[in-house]
Specification:
Number of helices: 22
Strand content: 15-25%
Length: about 800
């Protein structure tokens, strides 16, 4: 587990030949990184601390800059609320389910608290250490730090567009994280609450490392799926107790077979901590605001009885363990990552202990998906309790169930679903997305994002209900009262009845928000808007303006104040829409404390000039729904086709004439395997001199199904560019500047999903070649993505320039 609601997807199974050689080039990257990562550990110990310059405070128009000298600190004698949302894992782009599951829900509650005058600090950031980051780095040919920097920026940008108003959005790969995590560890160690256990783990001799469960693939012992992970089979869904259960296990980095090797690890003694944890949980869950799902999950764990839990891992990218015997290990992500809440706060303010070691004055409220509950309600609290120090521990835990996409799950690899970086593409404003996600927020059970429902709620609720009411009231003032708020002459029974109907709903809204029942509060606010619509419909100001101007003025004054109330109640949910409404009212609230206890009519002065009134929301049309369903329901139009060829850097070692074909050569090509490949190639016209080919670095299709050419076996194909009557082999050496590029290095389209066929048939080959040609600077491209030599900055190139075919 890690602090995120997304899951890793499996890769496509490969042939036995690939199980020996696939991703071999990445081993070099890994070895180079080992030295860099060891240096990183030394540097991080010496660092002066703080988030990197890439850390940002996100939050749209209302963001609070973390660079401000005025930091938010607890105030003695006042209510102080510390809010966190589950730290999104840095190796992915969040989808809508991730967004509603944590950051958006927490943002709504944080905004509400501020609007009620509560001293509030909302903290979040990217979770950056662990196996998944190392895996992603290898996949993209980057270092773990580069991956973290890249995706931290992506996350921050997405949350800013969604109007998430963090007080600080940091990251876990910082010196503060090291200091605080190591301090907590040392205290646990001092209190004799750690055990050492020796376990057998897979070790890859090629990569020179122990392999985490996700780095081991093999055949599932249950369903015989040949690409199951070491922790779970994606085909049958069954969990594996140990990676050693896999049949024919292989290292997912280099595809060689690993061996079992003993490794010692540290475990926290959860059974000894359980009595204190149970006592704390019973008090917190009874006095705080825990969702039923969060409570039931925690009770289930406690009922089964806690076991010692490993807190170390044989990885390079992580917080170093401050123990000489375990100096080459890092903390397991589920011990380390929740401490990120504390370290991110410490990077926000030097007075972080006022928030995190102050349970008497601070209320901690945490938001997350249900899969993250045990680690926030059991593992993290146990770690803090084991220090025997005074810590602020969670008072309320608000969890969500899963948000699905239509009738399936979100999947980046399959191009299914709307992800955070794509929502903006639709042209639908962020507040519409926020409204819908909160309206279908999955609390007690799973729910689904559905395009028709999204359009329906936008058109029938935001527009026909709320937008219609606000627009009718304010526009009528503009056209009949010179855009100035008219006076109340006398409140009649209908006005008093509206007030009497609204006030209990305001109270209900506040009670729901106080209890973190966000969806209930949203629908209560919309019920108030519905009362406003009914009020206008009953009073008919378009009729009153002709025969009772004073009564018309009263109705519009009351309606305008109800619009103002709704702008406050809806601000936590749709802040940009609320801001738009305030601009039309030409009203600037004093501070953030906007949400009143009841409906008031004395806020806007008589004669107050309104702003420019315009429709608040545009409809989502049926043709848009169909367009978006097609675009996001299957492979995205801008997503590359999966790449089915296994391309490798090779070197021609020997060239002879084909004995049965005058135009063919027989070539022996080394791609880093035990035996050279024999390839038949029609290269005589382009390279009449054999000596021009011997020693040449080339790009080889290494998974091509073997074929017989005039009595000789051909085990691959060399990629060449063709333009008019010219042909030239593609060059992987940066124009001859890097002749030392490692044989067997993968060549693949930049960022394209790699799903090499076990054996590429002629049909598969031709389908791939149809999408390949040379682009700018003669770089070979697949589906407009340049072919990159992994682990280098080189491209597969041709001197024939742009527009050459690849064959």
């Amino acid at each position: 587990h890690n602090i995120t609601t997304t899951t890793m997807t499996s890769t496509t199974p490969h042939s036995k030949q690939h199980q020996i050689q696939e991703l071999q080039s990445k081993v070099d990257i890994l070895k180079k990184e080992n030295a860099a990562l060891r240096q990183f550990k030394d540097n991080v110990q010496k660092s002066m601390g703080g988030d990197s310059p890439n850390s940002v405070a996100a939050g749209g128009g209302g963001k609070r800059s973390s660079a401000s000298t005025q930091k938010i600190l607890p105030k003695k004698g006042e209510k102080n609320v510390l809010i966190t949302s589950a730290l999104p894992y840095v190796n992915n782009v969040p989808h809508l389910g991730n967004i509603i599951g944590a950051v958006l829900s927490a943002d709504v509650y944080a905004r509400y608290c501020r609007q009620r005058g509560v001293n509030t600090l909302y903290i979040c950031g990217t979770d950056e250490y662990g196996t998944a980051t190392e895996t992603k780095a290898l996949q993209e040919g980057l270092t773990p730090q580069q991956i973290c920097d890249k995706y931290h920026k992506i996350h921050a940008s997405i949350y800013e567009w969604f109007d998430i108003k963090f007080d600080h959005f940091g990251r876990t790969s910082t010196q503060k994280q090291t200091e605080i995590a190591q301090h907590i560890f040392k205290k646990i160690q001092e209190n004799d609450l750690l055990n050492e256990h020796e376990t057998e783990q897979f070790f890859c001799d090629t990569c020179e490392r122990f392999l985490a469960d996700r780095f081991v693939h093999g055949t599932c012992p249950h369903c015989e799926y040949d690409d199951a992970r070491g922790d779970q089979c994606d085909q049958c869904g069954k969990l594996l107790e140990e990676p050693s259960q896999l049949i024919k296990p292989r290292c997912s980095i280099c595809n060689t077979e690993p061996r079992l090797k003993k490794s010692s690890h540290l475990y926290i003694k959860l059974p000894e901590i359980q009595p204190d944890l149970t006592q704390w949980f019973e008090k917190s869950s009874s006095e705080g605001k825990w969702t039923n799902v969060a409570t039931s999950i925690t009770k289930s764990w406690l009922k089964e009885g806690l076991l010692d839990r490993c807190i170390t891992r044989d990885l390079k990218w992580g917080t170093p363990v401050p123990d000489e015997k375990f100096k080459d290990k890092v903390f397991y992500v589920w011990f380390d990552a929740p401490i990120g809440y504390i370290s991110i706060t410490a990077n926000y303010t030097e007075e972080w202990k006022q928030w995190w070691q102050n349970p008497d004055d601070v209320e901690l409220i945490q938001f997350m998906g249900k899969d993250n509950v045990p680690f926030h309600s059991v593992v993290f609290p146990s770690s803090l309790l084991a220090t025997k120090e005074k810590w602020t521990m969670v008072n309320s835990l608000s969890s969500t169930s899963y948000l699905n996409y239509e009738d399936t799950a979100f999947s980046k690899s399959r191009g299914t679903g709307v992800f955070g970086d794509h929502a903006k593409e639709t042209g639908i404003p962020s507040f519409a997305w926020r409204y819908y996600l909160l309206a279908v927020r999955p609390v007690a059970s799973d729910s689904a994002f559905e395009w028709e429902d999204f359009a329906g709620k936008t058109n029938n609720e935001l527009i026909a209900n709320f937008g219609n009411f606000a627009n009718r009231a304010l526009k009528f003032i503009g056209s009949n009262f010179d855009n100035k708020l008219p006076a109340v002459s006398q409140l009649l029974e209908r006005d008093e009845r509206l007030i009497a109907e609204v006030n209990p709903l305001v109270k209900e809204y506040i009670e729901s928000m106080d209890q973190i029942r966000l969806k209930e509060a949203l629908y209560t606010a919309m019920a108030i808007s519905k009362l406003g619509n009914q009020y206008l419909q009953d009073e008919k100001p378009w009729v009153l303006v002709k025969n009772d101007l004073a009564r018309c003025a009263t109705v519009l004054n009351v309606a305008s104040h109800l619009v103002l109330l709704l702008s406050a109640l809806l601000e936590p949910f749709v802040p940009a829409l609320s801001e738009k409404l305030l601009q039309q009212l030409n009203f600037t609230p004093q501070g953030e404390n906007m949400i009143p206890d009841d409906f008031k009519l004395n806020i806007l002065p008589v004669g107050h000039t309104l702003g420019e009134v315009s429709p608040l929301v545009n409809k989502i049309l049926a043709k848009q729904v169909e367009e978006f369903k097609a675009k996001y329901g299957a492979k995205r139009q801008d997503q590359a086709e999966p790449f089915t060829l296994d391309l490798r850097v090779g070197e021609i070692k020997e060239v002879t004439d084909h004995p049965g074909a005058d135009l063919l050569y027989l070539l022996k090509v080394d791609i880093g395997r035990e035996e050279n490949l024999q390839i038949a190639g029609g290269l005589k016209s382009a390279y009449p001199e054999k000596s021009d080919l011997v020693g040449k670095k080339v790009i080889v299709v290494a998974n091509l199904k073997a074929a017989n050419f005039k009595g000789e076996q051909s085990e691959g194909m060399l990629l060449a560019s063709k333009k008019k009557d010219k042909m030239e082999l593609l060059d992987p050496t940066n124009g001859g500047k890097d002749l030392g590029v490692k044989l067997g290095t993968i060549v693949a389209p930049e960022n394209a999903p790699l799903t090499p066929a076990k054996e590429a048939t002629r049909k598969i080959l031709q389908a791939a070649l149809k999408q390949m040609k040379t682009g700018a600077n003669g770089r070979a491209e697949f589906s407009k993505l340049p072919l990159v030599v992994r682990g280098t900055k080189h491209f597969a190139q041709s001197s024939l320039g742009k527009g050459a075919k690849i064959a």
